[in-house]
Amino acid sequence: MKKTSMFALMILVFMLTSISAQNLLDVKLRVFEGDRVGPTKPPEFVTSSYIRPTITASIRTDFGLEKEKSQIQRVFNLLDVNLLTEADLGLNIENPVSMRHYFRLNSHQYMISIHLIDWDMKGQFLIVVNEESEKNKPQNVLTTEMTLLGGNIAVFGFESREGKPYFMSFYVSGPKNKMLPPPPPPPPSPPRAVKAKIVEFEKGAVKAQGLIKPPSVLKRIDPHYPVEARKLGKSGVVILNVRIDEEGKVEGVLVLRSLSEILDKAALDAVKQWEYEPFVLEGKPRKLVFTVTVRFKLK
C-alpha cells in the first residue's frame, strides 16, 4: 500500500512539474558596457533596437555572445562592447510575478525588474532599472515597456550620468509551444555573373526605389497560361526586371526569379507588349527600371 501511494505521489509530482515547465518562459538577460566612437554626448536614453538573427539557426538557439556583441557594436556605432553580467530567468505565464536580477557596477548596485504584462505567442513586458543604495532610497534609472518575441534578441540601452552607454538584451527561448514560428530565411543572393547581368541591364536608366515609384500601366496584355503548364499543375510567380524608354515603351525584360522555362516565356511575351506612362525626372523624360511580378494561378 505504501509503495502504491509513493508511486502515485511521484506521478503527481512529475505531472505538476511537466505542466509547470510547459508554462515557464525561459528569458536570458545580458548587460553590456559600450565604448562610444567620438566625444561623449550629454546623458540620454539610447534608441531601442531589435537584432533578429536570420542567417543560421545556431544564432537563434545558441544565443552566441560574440555574435550578439558584434551586432550591438555595429548597430549602435561603438568602439567596443563588454559583457558585465548575465542571468537565466524563468517566468510562469499562468502566474506571472516580477523577475529580478541584481548586479554591481563601480560600487553601485543595480536592480533589473522584468514584469510580464501579457503573453500571446509574444509578450509585453515592463522593464524597470533602479540604482540602489544602503543609505538612500532606490533611484529609478529606466522604466519602459518592451515587446519580446520568442527567438529574437531585443536590445535597448541607457546612459550613466557620465554619458557611458549601457545595454540590456533579452532573449526568450521557450517553451517551444508558446513561440511564434521563425521567419523564413532570406532568399540567397544572386551569383556574381547574375549580378553583373543585372548591373548591365540597369546601366543608363533610373531605378525605381525609395521615393521613385514604378509608372502606371497604360496598356496591359494578360499572359497566356500554357496548357502544358496547367496540366502539370505548375503555378506561382515570375519576377521580372523591366526597362522602359523615354516614351514608356518596354525596351528590355530580364527574369529575376524563374518559375519554369515555359511560364517564364509566357510572362516575357506578355510584358514586352505593355506600355507605361513616361517617367519624367526634373522635367526631362528618362529611362526607368523597375520590378514586375507576373502570377500564374490555377483555378
Sum this structure up briefly.
22% of the residues lie in helices and 44% in strands. It contains six helices and 17 strands. The radius of gyration is 28 Å and the shape is elongated.
Low-confidence stretches: 11-21, 42-62
Cα-atom radius of gyration: 28 Å
How many DSSP E strands? 17
Whole-number tally of structural domains:
2
What is the topology, as strand order, of the major beta sheet? 2-8-9-1-3
Would you list the SSEs in sequence order as H and E?
A: HEEHHEEEEEEEHEEHEEHEEEE
Q: What value does the average pLDDT take? A: 76
What global shape is seen? elongated
Share in β-strands: 35-45%
The major beta sheet can be summarized as: 5 strands, antiparallel
Quote the distance from N terminus to C terminus. 67 Å
Helix content: 10-25%
Number of helices: 6
- Which structural class fits the helix and strand makeup? alpha+beta
Structural features:
17 strands; 44% strand; alpha+beta; four-stranded antiparallel sheet; 6 helices; elongated; five-stranded antiparallel sheet; 2 domains; 22% helix; TolA/TonB C-terminal domain; 299 residues
